[in-house]
Amino acid sequence: MEYIKVTNENIDKEHICCAISNNNDIQVSSKKEWLKVQFREGLVFLKSTERGKCFIEYLPAENAWNPISADGYMYIDCLWVAGSFKGHGYGADLLNACMEDSKSKGKRGLCILSSKKKKPFLSDPKFLQYKGFKVCDEADNGIQLWYLPFVADAPLPEFKECARHPHIEENGYVLYYTSQCPFNAKYVPIVDEVAKENGVSFRAIHLQSKEEAQNAPTPVTTYALFYDGAYLTNEQMNDRKFLKLLSR
């Protein structure tokens, strides 16, 4: 497998893996605009030259769009290997490249979100454990912060207090999300319309800055759905999934 680093210099012509569609698609354009800003914050986007979901995104933890305290660490936004790419060691390739780059930049280690049992859109805890990661913090909703230190005296990364007990003081469905996931640009408006058609209270809060995301009431900021104050899921909803949720 060959890999390519996407930067502000080549992003307009490169395919970004998650959203397999043309550059005029709202999913692609929203993700690319988000990436262009993050590149200036030190984000690295490494992907396979093959068309598909095989990539890693990481950036200095101080600039992560998550409520964590992990000074000196590199935070992995997303490590994704899907479909026919699985089982060939590509995930290890991407992680190793991240490790080498992070060490060369003097980082204390890596950190990433996961959970005790595999959850949608989060890294597989079995893979992380196999690669030497350990759990360093856990929120009430089961979302865990994992870390891989490069030095023996590296302090443990941790969640900020606002994310330890995911709960909000608002009734109805409330969604916190960012433009990191390209699918949000398409499906959040669709879910909003479904809610209106069914007379359901729904409010989408689009986190549009690092500061907003770092003070969110949830460890996962890419997509976090609450209902009557309680955290429900980080799994992205489309119209079918949301209707199924409403029927419970």
Report on this structure:
Helix 1 crosses helix 5 (about 185-195). The mean pLDDT is about 95. By secondary structure, the protein is of the alpha+beta class. It is built from seven helices and 13 strands. The strands form three sheets. A seven-stranded mixed sheet has the order 1-2-3-5-6-8-7. Strands 11-10-12-13 form a four-stranded mixed sheet, covered by helices on one side. About 25% of the residues lie in helices and about 25% in strands. The protein has helices spanning about 25-40, 90-105, 125-130, 160-165, 185-195, 210-215, 240-245; strands spanning about 5, 45-50, 55-60, 70, 75-80, 110-115, 135-140, 145-150, 160, 175, 200-205, 225, 230-235.
Number of strands: 13
Structural class category: alpha+beta
3D shape:
globular
Poorly predicted residue ranges? none
> What is the straight-line distance between the termini?
44 Å
Q: Report the average pLDDT across residues.
A: 94
